[in-house]
Amino acid sequence: MREFAIDTAMTTSKKAVSSTPGIRVGPSTIHGLGAFATRDMPAGTFLGFYEGRRYNAEQIAAKTWDDQLTYLFTLSDGMTIDGGKGGNATRHLNHCCDPNCEAVEEYDDAGRLLLRFQTLVAVEAGDELFIDYSLTADDGSAPSDYPCHCGSPNCRGSMLAPPEEPLQ
After folding, report:
1. Domain of 75: which CATH number?
2. Which of 39, 47, 79, 80 has a CA between 20 and 30 Å from the CA of residue 104?
């Protein structure tokens, strides 16, 4: 009879590893749940990749979505990531017109487009983490359909992308 020893420390640590160790999720004063820094972070700190089920444009068009709560992020290649299906804590970064974080696209070694989040400025442990959603309005919808409640002194009143400055 053979006996096998299991390294419980290794097994436990694998289960405990978070893909977003610098983020905790909790109630937000801005909207629902928010993402909060678990430690002080300098500008440029990697927070995590936006994860979830991927859809191509045809799949997105064919699906019925709950307009009240979605975690959809469309990439420049036309793919959409649904953070509500297999996502992580990055899906809880709320919108702010003066964000302290940003989303950056990059390619992995296999050529797959990824979305990473990083801090724009230094943040302190406990600070809520924000990005500027810069949404694009659906045809026929008004900015008031996308209200912003960030409370920033520079609040645009809408989560839509700011109007582009005319070229001079």
Report:
1. 2.170.270.10
2. 39
